[in-house]
Every structure is written in C-alpha cells, then in structure tokens.
Design brief:
The protein has 232 residues and is an alpha/beta fold. Helix content is 43%, strand content 13%. It has a domain at 88-216. The chain contains 9 helices and 8 strands.
Length: 232
C-alpha cells in the first residue's frame, strides 16, 4: 500500500524529486497477522511492542533500525476519513492492492494534497477504467461505485476530490509531474471525467438517499486519529 505501491504499478513514472520514499505501508489479512509479524522480526524489523499489543487487531508497527525506516501494516481494512475492507482482495494482484483499491486510499482523503493527487493521476494515466471487479490490469469502476452508491459520505469526498483533481490538472499540473519517459497510456483528465460520469450514473441506495438529505450539515467523514508510537 502507500506511495510505493503506486510506483510498483507505475514503474516508468519518474516522480517529482521532492518526493521522499522512506516509510513502507503493507496490507495483510487478520489470519495472517501473526505469521507476518514473525517474518518481519526474522528479517530484522523491530516491533513496537506496546503499540502492537494495543492495536494489533487492526494495525502493526515495525522499524528497520539500520535505515530508521518505519513500516505500518494494516490488517483487513483501511480506517481513515472513510473505511473500506480489503482483506478479501489481496489475491487479485501479486504485489499491491488492486488499482481501484489503491485509488480509493487516496480518494477517501478529505484534505487531499499535491502528492496524493499526483499518485491518483499517475494511476489514471497508466490504467484503463473497467467494469471488471477483479482486474489487476485495470481500475474497477464497480469497486469504486459500490462504495460511492451505498455511502453518501464516500460519494461526497470522492466527487469533491475529483473536482479538485480536475482543477489541479488544468491549473497546477507541471510538465514533469507525470513523466513516464514516454507518452502516457491514457489522458488522466479524460479518465477523471469518465470516472465521475460512472459515479453519477450508478444507482444510489435508499441509505445513500436518506443521508444525502442531511448533506454537509453533519460531518460525513472521520478525522483520522494520530496514534503515537513508542520506542520499539
């Protein structure tokens, strides 16, 4: 997961030089958490014992002491501004979460930043949009619209971010921001339009419609909790 996953799926992307790739984000299933923790320790990563005891049901934390490199391991789901489960989707791609799931990790961020937007645009520049929910070679529209059509909060944040991304592409995107050392596979601006069209066209659930009546009067997202790490 995380920034390195986008580079794994977009290996030709020459990201802006100001990007720092220090931390590693991993994903696993609950039933594999113990085995993964043992593997990490065997490879020299030092666990934060206090943190892992308190939060190990949903997240583990390790440090590579030689490089001072932190490793976060999410278990079964992502819980930040919005939540989605990925435990049953880890076998679709060999190295990363599927492209649609990686896209969702960015589109769920209420205060999306430039780095996150470039990750989204790089993925949209390299992968087609598809209706296939189990594709590693495409971004699944069904995976995204399943969330945005059943949960108004997901819809609100996702469409707001798509609006920001459209503005970013037209006003702030620099020539070298999406440098693949070759022409991109797809036009990310056109992909943004197609994604928004699919989200708008997908039938909405009764739950979605009821929440839409409340709108922005009540917060539709969670504030991610920053849980401090102790000494490993």
């Amino acid at each position: 997961m995380g920034g390195l996953a986008f580079h794994a799926l977009c290996p030709d992307w020459k990201a802006p030089v100001e990007r720092e790739r220090r931390d590693i984000d991993l994903a696993t299933r609950g039933r594999d958490g113990g085995s993964l923790a043992a593997l990490m320790s065997a490879e020299g990563y030092v666990p934060d014992q206090h943190y892992n005891t308190l939060y190990g049901h949903k997240q583990l934390y390790f440090v590579d002491p030689e490089r001072n490199r932190p490793v976060d391991i999410l278990i079964d789901r992502l819980e930040m501004c919005h939540r989605f489960d990925f435990g049953d989707r880890l076998s679709i791609c060999d190295v990363t979460l599927p492209p649609a799931d990686l896209l969702l990790t960015k589109l769920q961020i209420v205060t999306i930043n430039r780095k996150d937007m470039l990750d989204v645009l790089a993925l949209l520049a390299e992968y087609p949009l598809s209706g296939d929910d189990a594709a590693c070679s495409a971004i699944s529209l069904r995976r995204i619209t399943d969330l945005t059509s059943s949960d108004w909060g997901w819809w609100r944040t996702t469409t707001g971010n798509l609006d920001q991304l459209n503005a970013f592409v037209s006003q702030e995107l620099r020539p070298n921001d999406l440098d693949f050392r070759r022409p991109a596979q797809f036009d990310p601006a056109a992909q943004l339009v197609e994604l928004r069209t699919a989200i708008d066209a997908a039938p909405k659930s009764m739950r979605w419609r009821l929440r839409a009546q409340v709108g922005d009067r009540i917060a539709w997202y969670e504030q991610p909790e920053e849980i401090p790490h102790g000494q490993p």
